[in-house]
Fold this sequence. Notes:
- By secondary structure, the protein is of the alpha/beta class.
- Helix content is about 25%, strand content about 20%.
- The protein has twelve helices and 18 strands.
- The protein has helices at about 60, 125-130, 170-180, 255-270, 300-315, 330-350, 390-395, 405-415, 420-425, 465, 475-500, 510-525; strands spanning about 5-15, 45-50, 65, 85-90, 95-100, 105-110, 115-120, 150-155, 160-165, 195-205, 205-210, 240-245, 290-295, 320, 370-380, 380-385, 430-435, 440-445.
- Strands 10-11-9-12-13-14 form a six-stranded mixed sheet, sandwiched between helices. The protein has a five-stranded mixed sheet with strand order 3-1-8-5-6. Strands 15-16-17-18 form a four-stranded mixed sheet.
- A hairpin with a 4-residue loop joins strand 5 (about 95-100) and strand 6 (about 105-110).
- The mean pLDDT is about 80.
Amino acid sequence: MASFVDRVVLHVSGGTGGHGCVSVKREKFKPLGGPDGGNGGNGGDVILRVSSQTTTLLDYHHAPHRHATNGGPGMGDWRDGKNGETLVLPVPDGTVVKTKDGKVLADLVGEGTEFVAAAGGIGGLGNAALSSQKRRAPGFALLGIEGESSDIVLELKSIADIALVGFPSAGKSSLIAAMSAARPKIADYPFTTLVPNLGVVQAGDVRFTIADVPGLIEGASEGRGLGHNFLRHVERCAALVHVLDCGTLESDRDPLSDLAIIEAELEKYAVDMSYAGVDGEVVPLNERPKLVVLNKVDLPDGKDMAEFVRPDLEARGYRVFEVSATSREGLRPLSFAMAEIVKAARDAVKAAPPKVAPQVLRPRAVNEAGFRIGREEKNLEPLFRVLGEKPVRWVKQTDFTNEEAIGYLADRLAKLGVETELFKVGAKPGDTVVIGEDDGVVFDWEPTMMAGAELLATPRGTDIRIADIGDRPTRAQKREEQLERREAKAAARAELEAERKAGIWTESASRRRAQTVKESNLDNGDDD
Length: 528
């Protein structure tokens, strides 16, 4: 026997984008024909789609993890990778998609209605797409990004026009079986109905659906019985039908007390107000149109009980129908009364103008940077966290085993203004900078890397700014070296000054040579 499942937690993840390709065109007489690496394919999406062929969420209860296919990697000769296939998950009509904390993401009503539960990741660009006039032959490509991953809750709310509510063994299942082609389980013991049942009724030219839920008892809102857990299946109904048992053998029960208990339990049920229906409003269950059905009038005691309580119910404003699911007495007037309510509700929906939320345009501010930097403390040391769609995506696309790719990332961040903003918020060389959330990439910030890697004549895949980064002195080391040079110069000056004062002069070789030539001329009689 198949189980009925109306609430599941589904773990979905989109496909990962394929990596870009690094390739150079090589042909005869063209040893270096330029970059020809293709782009990676995009990952597949995970889509929920309403299907009339699906009536339960049982498949997702047994297999709650669903993943779309990944995108293919790019290839040489300008060949792009294959896009991942979209994973379509069929769900029943009336499925509500929520987050784990109860926030409504979508209400799927109507055949073919779709919702993207997890978008696939974008593919990385190949080196052909990254080439430019200044960077003619990139030796790197961008990586593909992982698809979205999320845990969502699927709740099934049956699409029905009329809901039957009442105590266990009040005859709801027998009534739905007598009025429609539905064949629910019927037995002479309470709580026979364990899952909601649906049936289609034709009354004149109106066709509508009726639903019954497991019987309600006193204390259902506190967890007693089963019915309160399934009341979400009657939230979409236009009207409620109270089915009262007039032939009960229990001495402490009667139709009036049963009605009071059921209405009290319905009052305690909190309708999901987080999503508004077609008319933009959610009406509590107790405020919807109601009919009262006095069932089992085919029994002698049942007929007498119905005649006894009917005047009191009509005095309260209820429309009362005496029926028998066994003999089918009174079913036709009841079906036409239901059809009248359903037709009025449908006409009201058609007549009401559609409520369309006004489109709100939020243009990007002129001074908006597209990222933000926050200061944190970690181990009593400052930490600066960079958050923003572009910086986080760029870091994910970077191959940190490739020096040229790292230089390209540095150029992009500098052009975006990240380094300038770090200076403004008080970052100092050597401080820790994290790009992304808790799983972001951590850097020891050293703002000495100049931008413009495409202007540096280095082999493909390398960056002179990165290659000798281990040999480059830090600012503190440069300061120490400068102090050492100053001290050495001061010591040399002091030594020369001491020798001058002591009468020790050191003449240069050119001066001694000029003095020797002068003395030689005097010896030869030249008095010039």
